[in-house]
Amino acid sequence: MRRGISTTALVAAIALAATACGGDDGGDKGGKSAGGELTGTVTFWDTSNDAEKATYKELAEGFEKLHPKVDVKVVTVPFGEANAKFKNAAGGNSGAPDVMRTEVAWVADFANLGYLAPLDGTAALDNEGDYLEQAAASTKFNDKTYAAPQTIDTLALFYNKKMLKDAGVEVPTSVDEVKAAAEKIKDKSGKTGLYLRGDDPYFYLPYLYGEGGDLLDTSKKEITADDEPGAKAFAVMKDLVDSKAAITDASDGYNNQLNAFKDGEVAMAIDGPWSIEGALAGKQFKDAKDNLGVAPVPAGSARAASPQGGWNLSVYAGSKSLDASYEFVKYMSSAKVQQQTTEKLSLLPTRKSVYEVQSVKDNQMVQFFKPAVDKSVQRPWIAEANALFEPIRLQMQQVLSGKSSPEAGAKGVGEAYKKLLKDYK
């Protein structure tokens, strides 16, 4: 496994520097008062989107009601900036948060660098047996736990029921059916069938899985992204664009896709539960929420499959408020807060018990996404997991713009992985 700075040395350096920097609380180490009350400041970096951040801020600040002597400072950090921003702050021992909402692929990366505090044996991990196994898997690195699971998700096909009905088409279950449906939608309304994210390599994965492929075989330590399914996946995406069944972009895909879908410029989009609230705010769904349909991702030639995603909560190793931070993570990943998150945002809990709550059982998006999550493909939980995406992004842009062939795209990904993963073949 590729490592940069020695983890042991880096943790020691952070500990020595903690009195001068640590979290953003400016010097209050936190802990327990003489009366046994929890004290200190917890700076929480929230990476949720615009439709979610108000809810997360309210939930996070609710911790202060339980612990009046703890000051919770919620800082919204855009998802696209959060990874690099945290590494810069933690690596420079200045300005890192006490707690961060970490994408599942970031945990092993940050832990490998020594930036995260192990949570085993701390208050942060409460009732661990209640966590979904696949959610808990993303919190482990080198036999230690560096995060508490907060939400779990996967991708699905969002569709405009009225646009499909008006065009006389059923919900597509395969890529071929997407193309056929798109042609009828164009003839009926002049609108495009599908929005294809061309800027985010995460959205390449359903096509790769759909052709029977994967990025790596971690059990054999083999690179598989450049096998035949990798080239087929690029070819399928390129064909959707070339055939006019889909439109795509090379930047700001999240907002472009969401706006196009909620405004009725496209009939379908592959997206996740984090976009539900944003979609429902659009003119196509605001006054007709039942018009939003959700279905499994369309199958490729081999199968229908989508990646496991989600968010965890991690504690910075150099935090000056470790006791308060552990308790904050416990609170934010508790069954009660997860239930509130689902009720307000339709995001999926990581605790088994929350799925037994009636309001969660009755949530239509949970009813679809939970079975989809159960069948989702786990990504490689290795230190380099997040770095696996950049080579795909570069090659995806080359292929979709016609500057490179699908075969060359897959080969390019494989060559980049060989440089990144020294112990893989």
UniProtKB/TrEMBL annotation:
Gene Ontology terms, MF aspect: maltose binding
Keyword Translocase appears in the UniProt entry: no
Cellular component terms (Gene Ontology): ATP-binding cassette (ABC) transporter complex, substrate-binding subunit-containing
Keyword Ion transport: no
Keywords: Signal, Transport
Signal peptide residues on this chain, from the entry's feature table: 1-20
GO biological process, one term: maltose transport
InterPro entries: SBP (IPR006059)
Gene3D superfamilies, per database record: Periplasmic binding protein-like II
Family: Belongs to the bacterial solute-binding protein 1 family.
PANTHER family the record matches: MALTOSE-BINDING PERIPLASMIC PROTEIN, MALTOSE_MALTODEXTRIN-BINDING PERIPLASMIC PROTEIN
Protein name listed in UniProt: Extracellular solute-binding protein
